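2024-03-11 09:14:02 DEBUG pipeline.ingest accepted 1 chain
2024-03-11 09:14:02 DEBUG pipeline.ingest length=316
2024-03-11 09:14:03 DEBUG pipeline.predict start
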Amino acid sequence: MALGRWGLWGLRLTTAPAALWLVLSSCGGSGDDPSNAGIGPDADCRPVGRYQAGKEGSYRPCCAGLTELVTETLGDVNDELSCSQAPHREYACLEGYCGDGICEEAEAPCGCGVDCPDSLWRSHESECSLYGDAEPPTRPASVLLVNTTDQPLFVYPYIPLCVSGISPTLVQYHSIGPGDDWTLLNTFGNECQAVCSDVMANGWPEGAGNERPYGCPEVTCPPAEPVRIEPGASLLDPVPLVYEEQEMPRGCAAGITTPTVYCYSRVQPESPGFYGISARVSATAECHPPDCEPRVVSRPIGNWPDAETRLELAVP
């Protein structure tokens, strides 16, 4: 069966799964040469072409010298023809590789958009929206830092890494697990961590592979400037979203050559849950390690804050 340059990318798939497998497995194959070891349902490997493996265990690796490319399936998603993750394994065997600049027939549709940008390669918006940022809450929450002492106190922002793009936080947020194990949540971000929404809008950085993090510059870490709170006074600190690592598929953004990339979404933590808050406090404005360490004031708060949450500050 002869297919055009883009294979099946312009077709609406209404073919039964068994027949579709026959069509896919014939794409870009080795012609009518019966001596090719990759032909036939009992072959040990697959020649150049598109394949799917289901419950019958029909997966075979690509033949020696070929590269396997994980692909998606083409079909109707919410009445739109687009790519989506299949319930079975779909893959292509290529002479080259995704990102080599050559559009092989088996790379499209729903394969390598980097090599075949004119083909239909994007995943449906409903699938990619899972990796976008959460909407800010309609009623913003905050933590009220209260100085309960009779002297000025200084709250020191938390700066976990000496890299650009950090947003220092006055309040730190933790998930609390078994055994009262507090795990710091990432509410600060940094330029070393790609944000999924930015990647979907602007594409994956060229040459970044799928590594995490990428491109971390080494810079001098400046002292954190504290915020002064007078005796009996208070300060409201807005509750931020949390950076959560995702593994986003290739079809959600341009420039991705690997099956997935690691990026971060800004999410609203699950609730109900068990969380805690903390702040770093000192009675002096010049408390910097190693000579001085601010005191950590903390308390468990239960569910993720959705209103004003109070944290009383004190020093010994």
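2024-03-11 09:14:41 DEBUG pipeline.report The longest strand covers residues 242-249.
2024-03-11 09:14:41 DEBUG pipeline.predict end
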